[in-house]
Amino acid sequence: MTHRPIVDNRRTLLDTLRESIGHTGPKKGCDRGQCGACTVLLDGRRVVSCLTLAVAADGSDVTTVEGLARERELHPLQDAFVQLDGFQCGYCTPGQLCSAAGMLAEHAAGWPSAVTADVSPDSPAPALDAVEVRERLSGNLCRCGAYPSIVRAVLETASRTEEAR
Fold first, then answer.
1. Residue 35: which CATH number?
2. In a domain, 83, yes or no
3. Nearest-angstrom CA–CA distance, 16 and 7
4. Domain holding 112: CATH number?
5. 122 in the Ramachandran plot: left (φ > 0), alpha (ψ -120 to 50) or beta?
6. pLDDT (tens digit, 9 = 90+) per residue, 24-46?
């Protein structure tokens, strides 16, 4: 769905998504880019929408948690979060899901993380294990401490995706 709201050039993407478009999935947590509750995908890449100006997203594809599901069918990550209790209060869940979707795409593209052992250009894609997932999702905080279930849900989704290939 295409939206083209007219916004003040100082308005954040988060405020535009929530107040002008009605996408309440991204949450205003810290409003400083430190908690990840407002994470969305901008042209497939993770951004904290509280620090991104709406005008910077002009012409871009913005995906919120509302856009992960397709035709009433949950995204595999959403399904895994439900099945494996990857949330408690749910406040951080939309940002966690968007970040996890972006992170899986980064990993599939072979992008290294801070814990990737071999970052030489010829190295194979790093194995996706719990350490790698924790590092890649480290910008998303969960006050309830659902991290073990979130990591399991991401690893389960990744393994299902690899099996489907």
1. 3.10.20.30
2. yes
3. 8
4. 1.10.150.120
5. alpha
6. 999 999 999 999 999 999 999 99
